[in-house]
Amino acid sequence: MGVMIDGTYHVDDPAPDTAPGDEFKRAASTIRNWITPDGPFAPEPGRYHLYAAWNCPWAHRALLTRAILGLQDAITVAYARPRRTEQGWVYDESGAFSDPRLNVTAIHQVYARQKPAYTGRLTVPVLWDGKTGQIVSNESADIVRMLGTFGGPNLYPAPLRAQIDAWNDRIYTTVNNGVYRAGFARSQAAYDTAVVQVFDTLDTIEATLQGQDWLTGDSFTEADLRLFPTLARFDVAYHYAFKCNLRRLSDYPNLWTYARRIYAMPGVADTVRFDVYKQGYFSPSELRNPLGIVPKGPVIDWSL
After folding, report:
1. Which of 84, 105, 204, 213 has the most CB atoms lying inside 10 A of its own CB?
2. Into how many domains does the chain fold?
3. Among the options 9, 48, 51, 56, which is catalytic?
C-alpha cells in the first residue's frame, strides 16, 4: 500500500505496519473532523459521499450504519475494486466499481484534494463533503457515530455507553484488529499471542449471548455493529487466510445464531459480499498466498 507525503502519492510506503517484536501495528487515522448540527459540517442529505471497499471491514462499519439507519438515499457511495494495486484502492471509469461523485480512479486522488496537504496512509472509509470539497473523516469509528446525527435508531444510547465502550475496546483490540495481528504476524510468538486473544474474546462473547440477543442485553447497539464485519469474514477468510483456525464461527451455537440474526436485519445482507472477501483476502501475497489462488469454499448458509 502506498502513502501520501505532503499531498504527493508515493507507491512505496517507507513505514510498513510492523512494530517491534514482529507484531502488526495499525496506523492511526488522522483526518477527524466532526458532523454537528451547527456546522461547519452539518447533517445534510445529499451533501456527503462515502468511499468504501467491499472487503474492508472498517469500511463495512460505515456501510452497515448507513443501511441500518436508512441513509441509502442521503449518502452516496463509491465502491473500490476488490483488490488493491500499486495505486492503492482503485476505481473503474464506469460500472459497479466506479466513483459517481468525483470520478476518481484511485483513493489517493481524493486525499490529494485535502487542504492543508495530507501526509499519511490512504485508507477507506473516507467520508467526503461535497460542499467544502474536503474529507470530513477517515476514521471508521467516528463515521459510525457521525451518521447517527442524521436520525434513525440510537446505536449509542446514554444508559448503555459504558458497556458499549468496554465491548468496543476489547473487540477492536482482540477481534477486529486481532485477526490482522494473527494474519500479519512475522513470528510464531506474535501469532500465538494474537490468535489466543481472538478466541478468548469469541469464547467470552459466546457465553455472554447465552440467554440474550445482543452484547448489551435487549438492544442492538454500536458494539454489535462493530463486531459484525469480522464475523461476516471469519469463516470465508480469516479462518483460512489468517490462520485463525482454532474454531469456525459456525462452531459457536450462540455466536453463529447472533451473526445470522444481524445478517437478517433489513439492509444488512446488501452490505455483505462473501465472493469479494475471498478475492481480497486470497489475493497474491508473498507471505500469505504467493500463487494468489482463491478457494471455492466454504459453502455457508447464512439464513436463519
Report:
1. 84
2. 2
3. 56
pLDDT one-digit tens code per residue, 182-199: 999 999 999 999 999 999
Write the Ramachandran bin of 99: left for phi over 0, alpha for psi from -120 to 50, otherwise beta: beta
Decide which of 101, 134, 150 is a domain's last residue: 150
CATH of the domain at 238: 1.20.1050.10
What are φ and ψ of residue 161, in 5° steps? -65, -40
pLDDT band at 24 (very low <50, low <70, confident <90, very high): low
Catalytic residue among 48, 91, 180, 238: 180
For residue 39, pLDDT over 80 is answered with yes
Considering only CA atoms, which of 226, 265, 271, 280 is closest in space to residue 77?
A: 271
DSSP per-residue codes, 11-53: SS-SS-SEETTTEE-PPPP--B----TTSSS---TTSEEEEEE
Q: Which of 253, 237, 214 is nearest to 294 (CA)?
A: 237
Catalytic: 180? yes
User: 1: pLDDT confidence band, cut at 50, 70 and 90?
Assistant: low
175 belongs to a structural domain: yes
* Rounded distance between C-alpha atoms, residue 147 and residue 193, angstroms: 35
